[in-house]
Structure formats: C-alpha cells, structure tokens
Specification:
Elements: H1 5-18, E1 23-27, H2 30-41, E2 45-53, E3 57-64, E4 78-80, E5 89-90, E6 104-109, E7 112-115, H3 116-122, E8 126-132
Antiparallel strand pairs: 1-3, 2-3, 4-8, 5-8, 6-7, 6-8
C-alpha cells in the first residue's frame, strides 16, 4: 500500500530520468494529473497521455524530456517538500524561490495546484508540494 501517492509519482519521474527512460507510467489521480500538467506547461516533460487499462483502471503515460545535444534530462532535481508526516505551509509573501527563479515550486492552494510564480501573482499561499529544477 502506498502511503504517499504524490511522493510515489515524483519518485517514478526521478527514477525514469535517472535511468534515461523515455516513457513512464503513473497510476491516475487528479492531483497527479495536475502535477504532470504543470510539468508539461513549464517544459519539464515533452508530453503526457491518460489511458484506460481494462476499461476501469487509468494510467498517466509521461514522456520525459531530454536535451537533444547532451542527452541529459531537462529535470535536474525533483524534491518532495511537504510530507504526510510534516506539512509545510506558507503565505504568498514567504513562497520560496527555487534556484533564484530558475526552478519551480508546486503549491497546493485553495484555487488548485499552481506554480510559485502564479501563486505570488494571485497573492495566494498554500502547501508546498515539491521543488523542481
């Protein structure tokens, strides 16, 4: 049984880019889909697709993105911040900058998941899910 499905999702992505795998599969949930959608919009992954398996189970297939010149992954580090055992919250004035603005922080707010830049612009705080750079 998985106690932290978000950490499982991030670990699958991390294991995928460390092993130079092109496509990974993640069990579906709404929050995982929103995290993957943010990664796609920010350019960290090349594509994603939601597929049905056996007419009832959903999977998210994620195509990881690699630098075409060096072959290295676009994602250098993906780190879970708020854990089930220790939640990390911040208001919009204390939202951390990841690598001085080069990376992103995914924040769960009352308006849904969003990046740190959008949360600062909308003046909304929330739970810091992860850092990606």
């Amino acid at each position: 049984m998985i106690t932290d499905p978000i950490a499982d999702c991030l670990t699958r992505i991390r294991n995928g880019y460390l092993s130079n795998i092109l496509i990974i599969e993640i069990p579906y949930s709404k929050i995982k889909k929103n995290i993957i959608k943010i990664l796609y919009n920010q350019g960290f992954i090349s594509s994603y697709k939601i597929e049905k398996i056996n007419n009832y189970k959903l999977l998210i297939k994620v195509a990881l993105k690699y630098n075409k010149y060096t072959g290295t992954s676009v994602i250098k580090c993906i780190k879970r911040i708020s854990k089930p055992s220790l939640r990390k919250y911040c208001n919009y004035t204390n939202i951390p900058r990841v690598l001085n603005g080069l990376g992103i922080a995914i924040i769960s707010t009352s308006k849904g998941l969003m990046t740190d830049k959008i949360a600062r612009k909308k003046k909304i705080g929330g739970e810091i899910i992860c850092y990606i750079y």
